[in-house]
Amino acid sequence: MLGTSILDGRVAAAALAWLLATLAIYVFNGVMDVTEDRANGSTRPISRGSLPVPIAAGGVVAAGALALAIGGVVDAGGWLPVLILAYLACGYAYSGAPVFGKRRGSTAMLLVLGMGVLTYVAGWQAAGREGGLPVLLLGTAMSLWMAGVGALSKDLSDAEGDAAGGRRTPVIRWGDTRVRVLITANAVLIGGGYLAAALFFAPILIPSALTLVAGALAVGVLAATSRHAVGRDGRRRTYRGFMVTQYAVHIAVLATLLLEGL
């Protein structure tokens, strides 16, 4: 969205299509994770029984189809519908047969990385392919953030259910302590790399880069201090730190764009 109006109707419609595709992926994951989620004490609607599986499955199909339809209207003859389809395919591969990517750490991280990259490419496509290097740097940094920090920190609170579901996540294979060290190292490297790239190549991204560095340090602290936390909520602090940082970085980008337009 860098380089174009954030209020552009075409961009907003494309964002709606992507949101629907994301909803389809998330609900499908919930459908496929009922056993593991219940073992982990998750409060997701499907696992707690407030959203019946057949209705959820129907919602997945409806949301995915609507996302593709909107994408086809917004970018008729363009790449957006293809990107949405690829995004949905990655989401299916993460949770569904025969890939079951979520069961292995390396596959899960690659699929999360792919979905991140597709998200930023779709935004670039919807915005008329404007933005250039800043979009590339932002998309690369945050896709790596999702794969190298988010995909790992998500597993910290779910080891029991993951083991029950036959998964071989990094936490199960390498142990909790090693994964926390890896999360911290990845967070600092990604944050530092993004800040260096912003300083040298895209000054407009410096506020968001400083936000990511601060978030990376916070994630490292949370990874260290929540190791012996009691209860699932306590064990999810690192993942929450990851999510808050991700939101904060994008808010910083939007705020910078708005201030630049004044």
From TrEMBL:
Top-level taxon in the UniProt lineage: Bacteria
Source organism of this protein record: Nocardia transvalensis
Primary location class: membrane
Entry keywords, A to Z: Membrane, Transferase, Transmembrane, Transmembrane helix
PANTHER family: CHLOROPHYLL SYNTHASE, CHLOROPHYLL SYNTHASE, CHLOROPLASTIC
UniProt membrane topology term: Multi-pass membrane protein
Record's GO cellular component terms: membrane
Gene Ontology MF, one: transferase activity, transferring alkyl or aryl (other than methyl) groups
Protein localization: Membrane
Transmembrane segments: 12-31, 51-70, 76-95, 107-127, 133-152, 181-206, 212-230
Gene3D superfamilies (UniProt xref): UbiA prenyltransferase (1.10.357.140)
Name of protein: 4-hydroxybenzoate polyprenyltransferase
